[in-house]
Amino acid sequence: MTRPHEEADGPDGSHRRPEGLSDATVEALGSLSKALETTERARGHLFSFHQLTGTADLELDRATSLLREAGHHEWARRVETEVLGRNVIPGHWTFQIVEAYDRTYYQAFKDLEREAVDRLAAGRDHLYEAEMKESRRTHGHPDHTYAPDSPDTRRPTAPFDRRG
After folding, report:
1. pLDDT at 35
2. Distance of alpha carbon 92 from the chain centroid
C-alpha cells in the first residue's frame, strides 16, 4: 500500500512498519504508547505534588517565625508540632510516594511497553503517529514535509524573512 512518493518523501526506516505488521498491531501499540505517555504526564504531576508540598513545608518556617513575632507563640508551636514535617500519608513523605510509584508501577509499565515495541514492531516507535502524519500531510507543501531535512522544508524563519 506504499505510494510512490513515500519512499523519497515519507517516513525514514525507523518509522516504517516492518513487513507483515498488521494494522491492528500498529493500532494496539499506538494505544499502549499513548497510555504510557499519559502515565508520564501523571508522573510529572506527582513530581509537582512532591515539589509543591515541600515548598509549602519550608514556608511553614517563615509562618512560625511570623506568628512568634506577632505574639502568637502557641500557634507557632502548634504549626511546628502538628504540621511541619508531617507525613502526607501514614509513614510517607512525598519523595517516598514518588519512589514507590516509580518502583511499583511506572518502571514496570515502561519496561513492558518497550518490550512490546521491540518484539512486535522490531523496536520501531511511534508507527501509528508516523502513519497518521503521512496520511494527513500535503505532499509538496513546504510546511508538510516529512522531516526537518526533507527537500523543500521551509526554514523556521522563512515566513519572517524579508528576502525576495
Report:
1. 97
2. 25
Residue 120 grid cell:
512486535
- CA gap 110, 33 in Å, rounded: 9
Among candidate residues 129, 134, 127, 130, the one with its CA nearest the CA of residue 21: 127
Dihedrals φ, ψ of 50, to 5°?
-60, -50
Whole-structure pTM over 0.70, yes or no? yes
pLDDT at 27: 96
What does the pLDDT read at residue 8? 59
Profile the chain (164 residues) by mean pLDDT over runs of 10 residues.
Answer: 50 87 95 97 98 98 98 98 96 97 98 97 93 89 83 73 54
Within its chain, how far is the Cα of 163 from the centroid?
39
What is the SS3 string spanning the chain?
CCCHHHHHHCCCHHHCCCCCCCHHHHHHHHHHHHHHHHHHHHHHHHHHHHHHHHHHHHHHHHHHHHHHHCCCHHHHHHHHHHHCCCCCECCECHHHHHHHHHHHHHHHHHHHHHHHHHHHHCCCCCHHHHHHHHHHCCCCCCCCCCCCCCCCCCCCCHHHCCCC
